[in-house]
Amino acid sequence: MINIRDFLKRRVLLFDGAMGTYYARISGDMSLGCEQANIKRPDIIRNIHREYIDAGAMAIKTNTFGLSYFDTSHEEIQKRNELISAGYDIATEAAQDKAYVFADIGPAAGASESETADIYISQAEIFLKKGALNYIFETLSGSEGILKAAEFIKNLKPSAFIIVSFAVLPDGYTRDGRYYKDLIEKMQKSSVIDAVGINCISGAGQMYELVREFDLLRIFESGKYLSVMPNAGYPVIRGNQSVFDGNDAYFASKLKQIYSYGVRIIGGCCGTTPEYIKKVAQDLSGEAPKSVFVEKIKPESHKSIKKYTNVFLDRLKTWKDTSKKVIAVELDPPKDGDAQLFLQNAKRLKDIGIDILTISDCPIARARMDSSLLSCKIKRELSMEVLPHLTCRDRNINATKALLLGLYSEGVHNVLAVTGDPVPTAERSEVNAVYQFNSRKLASYITSLNKDIFNDSIKIFTALNINSKNFSAELKRAQLKIECGSVGFLTQPAYSQESFENLKMARCKLDALILGGVIPLISKRNAVFMHNEVNGISIPEDIIDSFENLTPDECKKHAIKLCLDVAARMYEDVDGYYIITPFQKIDIIEKIISGIRQGVNDYGLR
């Protein structure tokens, strides 16, 4: 066959459709992933490839999408490599110079960012040994590891043709909260990527709308080709199985419209079959190549018109003008449906002049009243500034976006993005954690929404563990959080000498606002518990022992003094204080705040 780049100058490159859903349909085998069939039922995979080629596909993907994993056992690695090798052999045998074969590499499943590139490269090595010239990285939620893997391929095979395709929801966001325009722009700027696009999750109609909002001229001028491969539509559940009931004529009509915008690489994803590809091939038969889009579409603005003033952030940035550091106080939400005591305590805190109320989100993974709904209630009824904690543990991307839209509409424009405490082991059979994000990805997602939707951005705060045993690594994570959009940090409570030294280091290294963590210890028992059972908190032994033989009233006074000592020691290294309320003991918090405001303690608070 002619060089693929020469082919693309003359014609549209029509890809095949789905492998997994089509394999399940014709084989009736739902017990194993279709990749296992490369060895166990190669005849079926070979026939599927041939059906797509007979339908008009000029490019087919190897049946290796689901093999982007890494296992440390030699046996599992060998098995994966055999499946990849067999998948490539089956595809090339089926193609027989009638279609281009693309080595298909899917998203790295469950891998950390540092492992992702290695997983992709380990697959690419096998394909390169088999002689693969064309590659597609598809259904991606982010760009981690892609450029490094593409560079590896190009170094060994400079003539390789590489497509990178992201899986996006109809609103343009991936499941990791990345905006498709940002991802495509990043790939577009790389010299090792030949084509970039979108596939999966959305149907043809939704992808048509996304294509209309591309900066198509910039993509084409960069010399990159655009790739679009939609699903057959939305799946329905029938007999405990996901089934696509799409219409091939509608699908083909939308792909023809997409093609009219100059999209040169098209195909199908989940739910599409040879019938879909045949219909697309028929509709595009005789079409002249498109090099420019038909019309220039001005992207619709989704941004709200109303303007808000972020009172808390203004205070946090200008505290030096008044020499009055800001004070944030955290309250745990109610365990039941009665918010009356919580409202009373919040009102008391407002009356003593705190700057913002922070509300934890189901701490230690125990269900409580929702922090975001409670924040809206406090904002409306008490006109207080609020900072709801937003964990990644319990919500997927849809629920997270819905919640952020609601918070924004209620005037809640500050959030604390945290990964969230894990669900206790004994409860995991009943409570499933989501963890679609970590705090960095959540911050990045909110930053994307700020660009696309919110007129006045939601300000993102994140956590900083100054009690970390490896604080250099913690600082690196903090820097990544800043790059993802974090404007400030709330630290874990400080008590040990190491925590104060780490805080000072953070002040020197991080270009961000810092609120130093302060938590009163109300007894020796409480101090022991905090030190041993609460993640991220370290209490020195001498402080624990200092509560020995104290009466409850003496413990309270001692707790207040310790907190004022902590506030004084961290004064030079923070922009404000983040005071955590234990057991709703507002009277202790009131005295701590009064002491901070008066500046009276052994260290001489300003």
UniProtKB/TrEMBL annotation:
CDD domains: MTHFR
Signal peptide: none
SUPFAM superfamilies recorded: FAD-linked oxidoreductase, Homocysteine S-methyltransferase
Listed GO MF terms: metal ion binding; methylenetetrahydrofolate reductase [NAD(P)H] activity; methyltransferase activity
Organism: Johnsonella ignava ATCC 51276
PANTHER family: SLR1189 PROTEIN (PTHR11103:SF18)
Classification via Pfam families: MTHFR (PF02219), S-methyl_trans (PF02574)
Entry-linked Gene3D superfamilies: 3.20.20.220, Homocysteine-binding-like domain
Binding site for Zn(2+): 200, 269-270
PROSITE patterns registered for this protein in UniProt: HCY
UniProt keyword terms in alphabetical order: FAD, Flavoprotein, Metal-binding, Methyltransferase, Oxidoreductase, Transferase, Zinc
Residue ranges annotated for the Hcy-binding domain, each copy included: 1-284
Keyword Oxidoreductase tagged: yes
This protein's pathway: One-carbon metabolism; tetrahydrofolate interconversion
Cofactors demanded by this protein: Zn(2+); FAD
Domain of life (superkingdom): Bacteria
Name listed for the protein in its UniProt record: Hcy-binding domain-containing protein
An individual GO BP term: methionine metabolic process
InterPro entries for this protein: FAD-linked_oxidoreductase-like, HCY_dom, HCY_dom_sf, Mehydrof_redctse-like
KW Ribosomal protein (keyword) present: no
